[in-house]
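Quick note —
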Amino acid sequence: QVQFVESGGGLVQPGGSLRLSCVGSESIASIYFMGWYRRAPGKQLELVAGMERRGATKYAESVKGRFTISRDNAKNTVYLQMNNLKSEDTAVYYCNRDGSSTWGQGTQVTISS
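Predicted structure written out below.
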């Protein structure tokens, strides 16, 4: 079963940007759906952005126009470009594939001045 390692998180000021990376332990080319999720303190896990194998994307309303998901199958990597970050984006971010209940360590994103 493919496993994922997330990276790229950090502490940034409101309005800043980050790019998260998610590298799979094996090829992701055949995976139908890859998603970025986040868990904010005291809140449930939510889907932030997702991308189908053929390129269709979906975003949470709260991040539309600010976040962009992309995938590079040749590098077994999924990215999440996050712009105009807000304090409410503070969370641990995870990536995962459709149908998997195994989660990686995630990467912490903290937005604070």
